[in-house]
Amino acid sequence: MLFLIITNALDAFWPLLLRQGLDQLEQREPLSTLARTCLIFLTFMVGLALTRYGWRRYFGEFHTFAAETLRQKIFTHLNGLGGSFFQKTSVGELMSLMTTDVQSFRQAIGPGFLIFADGVIIIIFVLPIMIYLNPSWTWKTLIALPLLPFLIWKVMRLIHSTYKIQQDRFAELTGFCHETVGGIRVLKGFAREENRSTEFKDLNNKYIKAANKNALVDSFFAPVMEFGVASGSVILLFVSMSDVLSGAVSIGTFVAYHRYIQKMVWPMTALGFGLSFFQKGLASFSRIKEILTSESDVVDHGQREIQEFESLEFKNVSFRYPGSEHWILKNVSFRLERGQSLAIVGPIGAGKSTLFHILTRLFPLEKGEVLINGMPWTELSLTSLRNIVRLVPQDPFYTAAQCRRISPLRAT
């Protein structure tokens, strides 16, 4: 921020040096005087280059680090949620959240905040100088500015709603792609490729329509932002004509003042773009906040640790998935001592996998009790429980790193 303030201060004052140099030429002052003004002007430009490098570098580090921290926070939070959360939330929605929404949030607190602050600081520096040069010209050339806040507010509301719809459509599209790729063998086995392609086309068209609608609203920014201030250049030609021709105002003052009008185009545009980034960031953060504030239905309050397995007991365990009235398990009881084995058989949907999901506490237990080494498994920390219970699913999951380690073993 310090670099940004210094940059805008230097950028606000160099047109005065241009005014001074033009006046010196008009008055035919000695070359040494003009050279001194040019040297000061060059010093300003070098300072501008250095300070611009400073704020670009440090702002870039800031919002990149913030996005990385938020992404890690979301990932850690997702790892701590129970199985029922992932039943009602699609993978595509979570992928969109971790990528697109985090990126939108980063742009809001990074480029968005930077652009907005840049515009405000420029106004603070430039507007007083314009009033100092000619108060009458100032209010006449900037007369259209009071209309801009109202127009900005209207466009912002539209952007917020259309961007949120766009992100929702994108999440649906991502989820559909994930499901299709994950179940590609089943789809090919039942010859459902054409049907899935039709569904994908429909979802893709919905996303395109939502994105185009958001782009249409967003495209109003440049015309709305620039019209009010760009019209000041035309007004300046009329209001300054008599002063310049009569010699009451020098050519240097006119040129410098026109430069300041051009500089006022960017702050108005910057305020609009900054607010646009904020609206998109708020829409994304509302989705992120919804995930981060969601609580797991499997609370890790256990404090006890176990090192070795001695016994496992299910006592009248009954279970149904959240939101369902159908009992998957009903009054299941058994006991296993160390060294014993138990085979559980049944048709698809009988609850075999559910039994192990309960054992590893992926879902909360509504009725019954599970004891490990004679103590309720809720008294164990989740880390200790899942370190001692090994679950080998029917469909194994390997990370890329694990695949690289496994492949050479298979080859030998």
CATH superfamily placement of the largest domain: ABC transporter type 1, transmembrane domain
Calculate the mean pLDDT score and round it. 81
Estimate the global geometry from the Cα principal axes: elongated
Q: Provide the succession of SSEs.
A: HHHHHHHHHHHEEHEEHH
Q: Beta fraction of the residues? A: 5-15%
Question: Largest sheet at a glance?
Answer: 4 strands, antiparallel
What share of residues is helical? Answer: over 70%
Number of strands: 4
The number of domains is: 2
Distance between the termini: 59 Å
Spans with pLDDT under 50 lasting ≥5 residues?
405-412
Descriptive key words:
2 domains; alpha+beta; four-stranded antiparallel sheet; ABC transporter transmembrane region fold; 412 residues; Rossmann fold; 71% helix
Describe this structure in words.
This protein has about 400 residues and is an alpha+beta fold. It folds into 2 domains: about 1-290, ABC transporter type 1, transmembrane domain (ABC transporter transmembrane region fold), CATH 1.20.1560; about 310-410, P-loop containing nucleotide triphosphate hydrolases (Rossmann fold, 3-Layer(aba) Sandwich), CATH 3.40.50. The chain is about 70% helix and about 5% strand. It has a 4-stranded antiparallel β-sheet with strand order 2-1-3-4, covered by helices on one side. α1 (about 1-25) runs parallel beside α4 (about 90-135), α4 (about 90-135) packs antiparallel against α11 and α6 (about 145-180) packs antiparallel against α9 (about 220-240). Residues about 405-410 have low confidence and may be disordered.
